[in-house]
Amino acid sequence: MASHIFRRSNLKLYFNADSIYRRYSVIASVIKEANVGEVTEVKGWVKNLRVQKELVFADISDGSCAKRLQIVIPKHLKTDDLTYGSSVRVVGKLSKSPRGQLELAAEDVKVFGECVVLEGYPFNPRTAHSPEYIRQYLHLRCRTNYTSALLRIRNAVSKHIHNYFDTKKYLHIHTPILTSNDCEGAGEVFKVLPDNKDTIKAMMQQDKNVDNVYFGSKTFLTVSGQLHLEAMCRGLGNVYTLGPTFRAENSRSRLHLSEFYMLEAELAFCENLENLQSSIEDLLKYIFIETRNTNEDDLYLIDKEKNKPPIWLDKKFVTMTYTEAKDILKRKGLQDTEDGINKEQELALVAHCDNVPVFVVRWPKEQKSFYMKESQDNINVEALDLLAPITGEIVGGSLREDDYNKLKLKLPSEALNWYLELRKFGNIPTGGYGLGLERLLQVLCNVPNIKDTLPFPRWPHNCDM
After folding, report:
1. What are the CB-based long-range contacts (under 8 Å, 24+) for 181-187?
2. Same-domain status, 229 and 149
3. Spatial separation of the C-alpha atoms in residues 234 and 236, rounded to whole Å
4. What per-residue confidence (pLDDT) applies to 339?
5. Which pTM value belongs to this model?
6. Which of 4, 66, 125, 322 sits between 20 and 30 A of 270, alpha carbons compared?
7. Same domain, 108 and 247
8. Which residue positions does the secretion signal occupy (predicted)?
């Protein structure tokens, strides 16, 4: 009883203490509420500074939204360290300018950190720096309009993803980053080992090699949480995960990263590709519509010329079989002798469909992974790739092989016997897909290079910070 009273007392003290800071507001809230006449405190960075005869006008951003708040500062409050790029705290009264613009009439100004541009600060006011230039300064690029807008959209998309799956009653699963399986079987994995030689020496056992010494088996950074989701799906129903994945590909293209975020979902009792396609299409349209509702200003900052809703939001996605896709490419003179469909061909198929996303379904089984369900013809598998503008493939998915004997013949390693065993005890048909978050952001924001869609991109020969 006494402990219960103590906790309630602490709770009351917490809220009382918190109320001390009620005047401080993020700029997004100040602009949205616009309580003219209210004394307000804001903190942020000076994005522009205009010195006039009696007044100084400063545009302040705190990163909370695309808009800036204009601060009107009496000249006697201006100090030498109040410059472009400096961080400040301003207290004053909200008002409207003669043109109706919300502004803050400063009564007190404090500079937290000065910014001496001539000592190497890479960005200039009123200058549209290219993404390639900005990319050289990963530690500072969130100060730019372009990157800050992209990161706010990334934050919003992540929230919309979780909201969508929550309304659909999926369970969010934290799948492991360390794993003993290479889900895709392509060998594009990063091996995990202790970096401490003393630890390896102390743990070394007879008949064990260095690769196995810590966990007892070779261990990798995950390339996919799919197999773990399949296990969870067979006891919890529909599940999803959103987390980092890793690929050891020697690629420096505008579409590849060594570390990226993958949204993966597994649908219980999914018996046909049409159900899987409908789920993917519904999710993508939800994300695009919601993000336009919440982050229109950010989308405009990123691309003023192409800031219109994509034409396909009110159209049904196109579906074609792999064979049909190959026939279209052949007629366009883009057919080659290689198996599969390359990036140039993917984008050509999307253009052929008036830039509406395209599901290419039922692929030859030799081109796809062991876990995909064979079609009735025993030649193809019930697999899909979703192709979109800018990126080409944006989603890959399939029905999962639920026939124990067929899967046993295709299992690449005895280490996956647990995966085979899922088909023995109360098995169900499932299907699932993986969606690359960064590629989704490329399509949503019309961003050519994937390295601009996340704070700290990693690719071969580049792991700064």
Report:
1. 181/220, 181/227, 181/413, 181/415, 181/416, 181/419, 182/220, 182/223, 183/222, 183/223, 183/224, 183/226, 183/227, 183/369, 184/223, 184/224, 184/369, 185/369, 185/370, 185/412, 186/223
2. yes
3. 6
4. 79
5. 0.91
6. 322
7. no
8. none
